[in-house]
Amino acid sequence: MKFSDSPTVELQVRNTHLSIHQDNGSMHVGTSVWPCSLVLAKFAERWSPLTYASLSSTPNPYAHLLDFSNKRAVELGAGCGIASMGLFLLGLNDVVLTDIAPVMPALKHNLKRNKPSLRNKTLKTAQLYWTNSAQINALKPPFDIVIATDVVYIEESVAPLITAMETLVSDEGVVLLGYQIRSPEADRLFWELCGRVFAIEKIPHEDLHPEYAYEEADVFVLRKK
């Protein structure tokens, strides 16, 4: 499912309002907002060191994971860009958002639309096809963080996606994955290939943001073996 059939999706992160235009009539899935981007952003907000410390005296189990200071990040299949925008508001200042050429106009439109909410910063973008090694290398990996949400939906893209993740993330880095099953075949292949490369940690559902803990959506953390 898409998060909403409305042409506009709203999200609040650290008291900052994001407003995303989506085109549900487009032929490209990247021009719609999908739930996992919101689930990941709000999970990060719940446990961010920028927000958690002021709310609780209990130790934060995700303090290190979500400490974005001095981290480089890249998002794969950024779509309308809401996941990276949310993480930017949580301190991820060095992030480049990537997607295929037909999605770039929607991505750039939404970054411009939300520029006042992003401290008047224009976030970096790059065209990226996961099969294009020259485009991957042009991003100058490795990155501390690779972001990917709702990117597993067709079998033929699974192997290139995992190769791109493996190439882009540093040996000590993490992939923050917002995930929902879109295709049983792609799902099986993804986890089979993923398990060869990455150690897989599933975030407990009760640790997701209570208002964005959709039943079918999960957050995973992947680290190189």
Structure summary:
By secondary structure, this protein is an alpha/beta fold. The chain has seven helices and nine strands.
How would you sum up this structure, described in words?
Helices cover 29% and strands 25% of the residues. The chain is built from 7 helices and 9 strands, in the order E-E-H-H-E-H-E-H-E-H-E-H-E-H-E-E. A 7-stranded mixed sheet has the order 5-4-3-6-7-9-8, with helices on both faces. Strands 1-2 form a two-stranded antiparallel sheet. The protein starts with 7 loop residues before the first strand and ends with a strand. The mean pLDDT is 93.
Inertia-based shape: globular
Strand order of the largest sheet: 5-4-3-6-7-9-8
Indicate the proportion of strand residues: 25-35%
What's the number of extended β-strand segments? 9
Q: Kindly state the percentage of residues in helix.
A: 25-40%
What is the N-to-C order of secondary-structure elements (H for helix, E for strand)? EEHHEHEHEHEHEHEE
Uncertain stretches: none
The number of helices is: 7
Note the main sheet: 7 strands, mixed
What's the N-to-C terminus distance?
A: 33 Å
Radius of gyration: 16 Å
Average pLDDT, all residues? 93
Q: Give the structural class.
A: alpha/beta
